C-alpha cells in the first residue's frame, strides 16, 4: 500500500472543500442538527429557570392547562 504525503496547508484546504461540499449537498441534515441544538439550548434554559422559580401545586398547573386560571 502506498502512502500519500501532503502538507498541512493542502490537507486543510481539502478538509474545507469537503466540508463546504457537504454543507451544500446536505443542507437539510445540517438544518436539522442546528434545530435540535437550538431546542436543546432552549430546554436547558427552561430547566434553569424552573430551578430558580417558585413551586406551584399540581392543582394550579391543571387549572392553567384547563384554561381556568
Brief write-up:
77% of the residues lie in helices and 0% in strands. The protein is an all-alpha fold.
Please describe what this structure looks like.
- The chain is an all-alpha fold and 69 residues long.
- It has a domain at 27-69.
- It is 77% helix and 0% strand.
- The chain has 3 helices and no strands.
- It has helices spanning 8-25, 27-52, 58-66.
- The chain is elongated and about 70 Å long.
Rg is: 24 Å
Oligomeric organization of the protein chains: single chain
Q: Helical percent range?
A: over 70%
Q: Give the N-terminus to C-terminus distance in angstroms.
A: 74 Å
Class from secondary-structure proportions: mainly alpha
Order of helices and strands: HHH
Number of helices: 3
Mean pLDDT: 89
* Largest sheet: number of strands, sense, barrel closure: none
The total strand number stands at: 0
Poorly predicted spans: none
Q: How much of the residues is beta strand, in percent?
A: under 5%
Question: What is the topology?
Answer:
Elements: H1 8-25, H2 27-52, H3 58-66
Q: What descriptive keywords fit this protein?
A:
69 residues, mainly alpha, 77% helix
Amino acid at each position: 500500500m502506498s502512502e500519500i504525503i501532503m502538507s498541512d496547508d493542502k490537507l486543510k484546504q481539502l478538509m474545507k472543500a469537503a466540508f463546504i461540499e457537504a454543507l451544500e449537498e446536505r443542507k437539510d441534515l445540517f438544518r436539522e442538527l442546528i434545530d435540535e441544538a437550538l431546542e436543546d439550548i432552549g430546554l436547558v434554559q427552561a430547566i434553569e429557570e424552573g430551578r430558580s422559580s417558585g413551586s406551584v401545586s399540581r392543582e394550579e398547573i391543571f387549572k392553567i392547562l384547563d384554561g381556568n386560571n
